[in-house]
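Students often ask what a holo structure prediction actually looks like on paper. The answer is less mysterious than it sounds. You provide the chain, you provide the ligand, and the output is a string of discrete structure tokens encoding the 3D arrangement of the protein together with 6-O-phosphono-beta-D-fructofuranose.
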Amino acid sequence: MALGNIIVGQSGGPTSVINSSLAGVFKTALDMKEGKVYGMLNGIDGLLHHQYIDMTERIKNDLDVELLKRTPSSFLGSCRRKVKPEDYEDIFKILNELEIGSFFYIGGNDSMDTIKQLSEYGNKIGSPIRFMGVPKTIDNDLAVTDHTPGYGSAAKYIGATLKEVIRDGLVYSHATVSVVEIMGRDAGWLTLAASLAKGEDCEGVDLIYLPEVPFDIDKFVAKVKELHEKKGSLVIAVSEGIHTADGKYICEMAASDRMVDSFGHVALSGTATYLSNLLAGELGCKTRAIEFSTMQRCANHLASLTDINEAYAAGAMAVEAAAKGETGKVVIFKRVSTEPYIMTTETYDVNAIANEVKNVPLEWIINDGTGISDEAVKYLRPLIAGELQPVMVNGLPRHITVKDC
Ligand code: F6P
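The corresponding structure tokens follow.
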């Protein structure tokens, strides 16, 4: 089955390797020499406003492809838009005008809802357009797949930066307590990566709190006090999504007015600030709040080579699957073995993935909800392996953007 003209979009929160998946889609489709390769600007939101580019006018040669793999965040821009049935006709009209044969969307569980809805509607009206999902999210919370592209690099940044924060936190003879806030909304996969800091040359973080376990503020303060009396300086990792047993986010205790996106997700941040202020009062020592914020998802200079390669492979496989006629599917990873690390790719029904959230297995959370098991660390290690040297110009990494190339 011919691939036809293709269109690709990026959606949801960016990662440092989402452009490697874009490169995988672009290069694989281009090499098939079947038609045009369009990129929608700002995902489905932009497409609905007729905003797209011919990607060959922007990515002109193999060097540009290499730069794309080394450029963080979403080259084509992103959106957090939930497609509605009233959008279907407009979307299909635009796709038909462009004579699109295959549609690719690189995103997380919310973005896969777009693939689910459009492939269902396409089937209903007998459209030949194929819709394929390419997985991405630093949150690593997609169902079915072993992990998602973007996660390994964010985990590497968290592990590496925490090692540095721990070294910095131990320099003074007086004690400092640092609370580090890590993204991940309602799944603790990213905060799990705080466990990577521990090794021969590093003590590791003292306490780790994931959203899978309800957060009890009194127990937290008591635990920190006890450890602080014993050890002095501490580094504590908390997920942005930690919440009390009745579902109230800790960050909401600092400020209750929060943005909510079209999928109903509350904007989370401020957890570390709230807890570090609380601890300063309780412990009477210097405390510090550190939010890794967007840095953990755009630190391409510290990306995992494994992640970059897998992100590319996911994009390439989506194109190959569409060329075989598949639609309504998402590329997933299956772990064959951890030591040695062997991963395979397959495609899977989008219905099992769209809008679903996969949480960290509870047996990986130990020490009364404050530590991570060795099994979890074993799962993580291969995902952060390897580096890809950035192209350095004037001492800084070179990127490629839609505007300047
Ligand atoms: O896409 C996942 C994510 O990075 C979450 O970990 C985080 O809560 C959210 O995005 C932040 O979204 P935004 O970039 O829209 O503020």
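Residues 151-169 form the longest helix (19 residues).
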